[in-house]
Amino acid sequence: MYDCCLRRVLYKNKFEMTYVGLSQVIVKDISTGSRVVLKSHYGYEIDKVQIMGKDRYLVAHTSDTLLLGDMANCKLSEVAWHGTGGNEKFYFENQNLTLVEYGVNDIIGSVRTEFMNPHLISVRINERKQRGVDDSKKLAYLVDWHTICIMDLTKGVTTSSFSHEQKINWLELNETGRKLLFRDKKFRLLLYDVDTEVQTSLISYCSYVQWVPLSDVVVAQNTDNLCVWYNIDMPERVTMFPIKGEVVDLQRRDGHTDVLVKSGVDTISYTLDEGLIEFGTAMDDGDFIRALKFLETLEMTRETEAMWKSLGELTLEASQLHIAERCYAALGDVAKVRYLHDIIKMAADITKETGEDGSSHHTIKAQLAVLNKDLEKAEKILLQRGEVDKVISLYKELQRWDEAIAVAQSRGHPDLVVLQAAYSKWLLETSQEEKAGELKEKQGDLTGAVHLYMKAGLASRAAHLVMRHQIDLLQQIATALVNGGQYEKAGDLFERARSHQQAMEAYKKGQAFRRAVELARVTFPTEVVGLEEMWGDYLCTQRQYDAAITHYVEAGRLKKAAEAAILARQWSKAVQIVEMQDPASCKDYFVQIATHFASVQDYEVAEQYFIKGDRPHDAVDMYIEAGKWEEAYKVASGCMPLAEVKELYVSRAKELEGQDKLREAERLYAVMGESDLAISMYKRHKQELEAESQLKQAEYHYVQAGDWKAAVNMYREKNLVSEPVGWRLVNLWDGAYRVNLWDDAYRVSPPVGWHLVNLWDGAYRVSEPVGWHLVHLWDGAYRCLTPVTNPGGDSAVKLLTKFGLLEAAMAYATESFAFDFAFEIARVALKSKLPELHLKYALHLEDEGKYQEAEDQFAKAGKGKEAVLMYVHQQDWDNAQRVAELYSPESVSDVLVGQARAAFDGKNYQKAEAFLLRAERPDLAAKFYKDVDMWTDALRIVKDYIPQKLDEFQREMEAKSGKGYEDLLSQAKTWEQSGEFSRAVDCYLQLTTQNCGSEEVLVKVWAKAVELCIKFVPSRSVDTVALACDRLANLGKYIQAGDLYLSIDMVKEGLDMLMAGEAWDRAREIAQNIAPRYEKYVDEAYVDYLRSKNQPDQMQAVDPGGCPQDVRRVRELGEVLAACREAGQWGSLGPDALAKYVAMYAASLIKSNAPLSALQLFAKYGAPPNPQNFNIYKCLCMETLGAPLESSGGFQAYAQLRNMLLALVEQLSKTNERGTSIHKEFEECLLISHYMAMRAACEGLSQAQDKIVAKLSVSLLRHTKIIPVDKAFYEAGIYCKAVGLDNMAFVFLNHFLDLCEAIEEGSLGNLDNSDFVDTDIPFEVPLPERQCVSEEKREEVKEWVLAVSMDQKVEQSLPTDERGIYVASLTSPHTKVTSPPCMITGYPVLRQRVEFKKGGRCANQEDWNKFITAMKVTPSSELSDVWKFLSQWCGIPNNLSYSFK
Q1: Helix (H), strand (E) counts: the chain
Q2: Helix intervals (H) in 524-628
Q3: Omega into 751 within 30° of 0, i.e. cis?
Q4: Model confidence pTM above 0.70
């Protein structure tokens, strides 16, 4: 017999493997002879065969499959298996846990687990009696180290399964199987509620824990403290006391429960409060009487109070009313006790009448439902018995008229009409006219509804109803609207009633000029022009100058049009308008236009308009400031007196000289042709240099002044002259007569040589022979002159006369400062030259500083005015005045003017004013005051001395005054002092937060404006107070605003402001003493405020019946939290206990309608990522993001929610919740809160930021599954409308109106979403239970949509971008590509972007630039907070630079 195979292998000497083919192997057990055929069903070659699992299991590999076999039962399997490389691990063992109950012959349960440690398995089988439960069998075990599974053995199903982030090392169910204690490897002790699936952390470190037998009391050790939970349903209430040692056991016997603690070699016993333990047991067993008896023995503490409350709730639920009554009596709840007492009495009466158990009677059940505030249940119970009257009476007793009428209508009650009449009567008796009007409107009594609306002061609503149903009450309602200040609507009604004159007056009062003009064009054509002017005036008061221009032009008021154009800085329009008018009447406008062109350095145009405005001085000043002296002189010489031009340029040159800018000063002197003054300047400067021994520089300035002789004289006086005469004469004759060679002059010997040099200056111009002859003559003449009074002096005069050089010699003598010689010549031969000679000598003495001698010489020359000017130049005013009075009376005025100018320069304004008034020059006094911006004094001078120029100065002051804070304040004070109180009020009101950063100053000036109005302009009092108070309210200065309202007897508005500023005591005092009619109004508002602030004690004092049970609960939790924090107990309890108490407190706050307080609580203590808190976090998000417009918390609320969610999301990303649905939900809420905070921070800053606000509102539409859909569409539409995006605004607001109707109908079934096809705006969204937008705002939207729908320019379509889809959509419906959202606006980021360093987030470059610009231009704490948050969440951008492309 032959055996054919490919190969045969012996495996472990136990098995024989025969390869009969590439895909087939026979495995034979040598010991038993049994065989198994291992074959690949896909025909793959078998590479390797192994036998594992105690020689029972076959494992073989092929290239693409894995073969497995069980040799015991010959079962084979082949599965696809690719690319593992043979690195698999195989497990052929598992462990099963099977439970058998003694006395029962069936297995009650079997589970698979690898953890058989008794500390990791807990079984509870009917260990304690429970209410309503006959059979209780529970098993808790570990599936893996992190997962606990709880199984109901009676049903064989898993009731609960949950995971923990750490490994679990101990677990145990309580005896009822409803609570599970477990501990992780970090020794944290946690409690799991099987029914509610809520997990609670008890302590952070636990070395021992045990349930007390036959109770739900827990005992645990936390380091050196023994922790006991007598009521485990309230895990936050734990009893702790210190111990020494380690807990080793817990014993309960003979009515005592002891905790055994081993300390060293000693064992100490701590006895627990058996009464508290028994109470819990009695409650679980349903033995309420035993529990009551136990509580009767205890004093009232926090623990016992909680027990009384628990017992009361359970007995009330079990209809054991006597016990419940006793419980609430112990708690001090008098109202419930009385109510229960009445119910018990009623039940006893029913039992007595019927013989049945009265507590189970339907009437009693209904009363208990009312006690539990479940009115629907009470209604259902009574209606099932057909007791409709009782239901109606119940609702009437609770003032729930609407429900009562609804029940009567549904049941066809015969007294329905009587009930409606009673409701209407009650509404009128309680002053609820608006509600009564709504009732009348529903009943179809429209006329009655209108009258009630009118009585309630709701004329606008009455008008809407009249116009909608065409009721003939237009005239009456229109009059009411006028009285209520709603002039435009009143005008509309008057127009409908064809009372055109009344309509016109109403439009005028309401500043509805567009409607007024439209009406006038049809009925009063002659009034159109006047209305256009009034329209322009109104726009100017609103600072809409650009819009006012057109209306002034239409009215033919070109001057006003020019003023508006200038104020609007529309200079081209201003030029066109003023060119159309008489130049003489437009001088002021020309000056303002010229000032503008000068500021932009268009000097030629500015010069043109300065001259047209008869202000050449300003043109000159403009050119001087620009350094264009020639142009300035050209203008000045053509338009100003030469004396003024000279005075202007000389004063400016002296200023430059004082700054050592001699070249520039010389240039001015040259322009004026005053070379002498330039020479004098250089002389003064060179003398200073000479005195400082800077000879070379002094020589330079002598040369510039053309005084080379002085240069020589300088060297001679320095004793530097030494050489013979001939040498110098040769140099001179050779033509080397240049100051450059005067370095050799000091070699000429004195004294003859000096005079020869002096003479040579004249001889140089004579021919050679004569020149030499004159030199010799001069040498002789010099020797014979001693002076001329000498008898021999006539010979010199005769000699000079002989040669015709007498005048030249005298001239040369004066130039050489030889005045004695010159005077001798003049007295002998040229007496006519004496005045001129005295004048020259006086000028020389003035240069030498010998002013008294110079004065004498000026007097001898008959030049008194020059003597005055000499002293004026030296500012020696006394001598100048004296000389002027002696020699030049006409110069007295000039002296006074000079004194005044000096006094002004020295800021001695009163003295200067006195001088100018003495000089009869009040115009100069006003000019000087104007030049130093002392407009008050300038106006005073003008008003007193030159009143004809008052209007001109007032216009100039308004034109030149700046718009800064100090300028406006100064101008307002000027108007006030001038008696122009209305203008002063306007100036004070121009001060806003935009131009003044001091709130204190703003409060004072606005109060000043109101004071002026009350005293001097009473007609403006109401409007001014309203404006000032509105601004004060925006600054948070509510109390000041309230005082202003009260100052003009606007009591209600004043009270509103005081209440907004939380000045409740003062508001209540005013209401009680001054305006009793508002006392109830203030008290109700105060109660609402106290309720929102969780202050039940104060609320109890104001409204004893207004402090509900939930508010007291909030107060208690707040006191617990505060007390624990002050006592410093959190260190011992750990962060989990803190988180638990905070969560409970926050839940109570939310239930008490105070979500913002709960949000602040988490902001203070943190928001841990505990799953049991997730519902609280969700509720906070919904309450904050979905708050109605009137009650939204603003930036602060959104910022706190955003910060809390960021911390929560970051913590969740580090746990097993990362990537789960709850993690993603909180991430979406984080993004929404960030967008809302960003929108609140940017709102109202600038036009660019308004566009960001609009984009954010549009982006939020994709999140309408979280935020209320009607609120989102309203905000998107309103903000788009504000920035001119009318198409988008129309689409969004139109859809908003559809949503409002859907909310009223309670269904979205009829909603048209065709406008949002192919966008990421969701269709299926939650329907809000209530409207988030007030009815007034809805009516405004309705009117706007109706008006815009008639405008053909507005299309009902959404804009698209370069992708061809809706511009704000992140996902393209065609390509399915999703773009990232911009972190600034929420719009998709397509091209230029700013990348952040964290999370892959980004922003559009343009939007990022606008945000950064806003932070720089209009900094605010909100923008800084947004920037800080973005840096924390997204990181710093990769490129901090920004551009304005």
Answers
A1: 67, 27
A2: 528-541, 545-555, 558-567, 571-579, 587-599, 603-612, 616-625
A3: yes
A4: no
